[in-house]
Amino acid sequence: MSRRARLVFFAVAVTGLAVTLGIGLAGLPSFGGQLSAYARMLNELAPQQRHVTDVVSAISFDYRGIDTLFEEFILLSAVASISVLLRPLSDETRRLPEDKAPDRTIPPPSPAVWLLAVFLSSLLLLTGLETVTHGQLTPGGGFQGGVVLASGLYVVYLGTNYATVERFQPDALLESSDGLGAFGYVVIGLLGLLAGTSFLSNVVSLGITGDAVSSGTIQLLNVVVGVEVFGGFAILASEFLDQTAVVRTRQR
Amino acid sequence: MSQAVIAVALVWVAAAGTAVVLTRDPLRQAFTAGFFGLALAFFYLSVQAGDVALSQIVVGAIALPLIVLLSLAKVGKDQK
């Protein structure tokens, strides 16, 4: 395509985009305008109906729980496909090349970095658990907390080396936690069917609003999502780290 | 007051987004993209969307730079 034709094509496309986007934006409610009727209704009803203080959690894990179920499986399949894509190929090996200078070892990271990693990883573990288990009370929940938990592993890598991280992350356990987390979502959904109502209905005792254990299945779903996301992101990181630190092209 | 915070957040998002586009080197782009993620998180927080801000922080500050940096390291190692 010549330069001129491309410019004409661009001009047509950009005009079309500007017009449709302009019409669309003109129909939006004004910035900072009143809440929609749906939002006002949920703000009023969710704390009473579901005993939550974070209405967003009630929406994503209860009122629209089925959407989150699909998102969990999107994440599961994405992580599975990355694992398949990043497997060592037939012309790649995990064996390290022969060490030409065995007397020269890689210097360990400085004590300051090591101390920071120990401090930060325990802090991340605590923050992650807090975020996962308090999903119904404060912003955050299974997804955010799960990623924070997985990032604790990356910090171990920053402060030590890859061999230490591999000891901390048993692959089989991570893979099963990814699958079990996603499966747990379905099982909690099936509780509703067992109780004689619909799939994913909130049939567990709701407790008192604001308590550490409250909101019934919303909290349980947050926990299983946290397990799944932790497993998924840890696998993701370990696959990429494997590719960078271990897997290399086989020498001929 | 809250209007001023939102205005600052919007300007920051616009500046950071432009910076990501104008950075040509992928390695540096990973860092500017991280700053862009931080700007977005601040913007979501300024309009009181705490849950979205947290998701943005974990994805923009942890997941995205990690994957970009490790991919760059892998590609660089193979070219050597």
SSE blueprint:
The complex is a heterodimer of chains A (252) and B (80).
Chain A: H1 3-26, H2 37-50, H3 55-63, H4 65-85, E1 92-93, H5 111-133, H6 142-159, H7 162-168, H8 171-194, H9 217-245, E2 248-249
Chain B: H1 2-22, H2 26-46, H3 50-79
Protein architecture, described:
- The complex is a heterodimer of chains A (252) and B (80).
- Chain A has 252 residues and is an all-alpha fold.
- Chain A has a domain at 54-86 and 109-247.
- Chain A has helices spanning 3-26, 37-50, 55-63, 65-85, 111-133, 142-159, 162-168, 171-194, 217-245; strands at 92-93, 248-249.
- In chain A, strands 1-2 form a two-stranded antiparallel ribbon.
- The longest helix of chain A is centred in the C-terminal third of the chain and has 29 residues, at 217-245.
- Chain A is globular, with a radius of gyration of 24 Å.
- The two termini of chain A are 43 Å apart.
- Chain B contains 3 helices and no strands.
- Chain B is mainly alpha-helical.
- Chain B is 90% helix and 0% strand.
- The interface between A and B is medium-sized, with 25 and 20 residues.
